[in-house]
Amino acid sequence: MATLDSFREATGEPIQLDLANGYIADIRLNAGDINGRTITVELTDNGTPITSTDGITCALAYNTAPGSGLGDRVSMPAVFGTTTATYRVAVPRKALQHAGAILMGIEVSVNGTRTCSRNFHGIVERAVFDATAPDAQDQMGVLDKLIDDANKAVKNAVSAAGEAKDAADAARTSVIEYRQLSDDCKAKIAASAAIGVVFATQADIDAQYDSVIAPALSDAETIPPLTQSDIDWALDIINR
Fold it and tell me: pTM for this one?
């Protein structure tokens, strides 16, 4: 099964970090990604593979406002089954909030030391589907209303299903005795019985209720929530 690991690699090939001052090229990112593009680092020591990750940790550091912002970092989990120590992480959503250049670097920690790679830039391209656009809030407001209306419709449907179930239960448990029937009704029952019509017993009615009506009503009580397809359908209507 395909993993898309290579497809998602932001640098095209893993960053081969052999020396602390080794050159790292700038990379292209996209503000629309959500755990999309990844950065992979392969560590070597002057060309010698590092065969164990014991005691070695890596982090991806980034700063969206160099010189004025503190910046942030995310741990890079080790990738196993490789010929040398390898670490990979998806570029965090927080780093992609604004289009433009951000400062990035790799931090390698071992035995209480931390060594930072040379800086490189991530060039964040504006997302095609841009939730930060001026009219995005208006469209999102329409979408929110559609979702709210849909949720209300679901609640109304569940409520109606509950009322139907209550009515069915009431009808099922109510008993009309023969003596309460009108003379005309008794005469029709007698005539029907005389020609061989078979009348259902209470046990027959209960069995049909349990096997046919009850399952249908119980399914109506578990109407599923909105899916991503439902939301995409609503967005398609908004954008027409």
Answer: 0.56
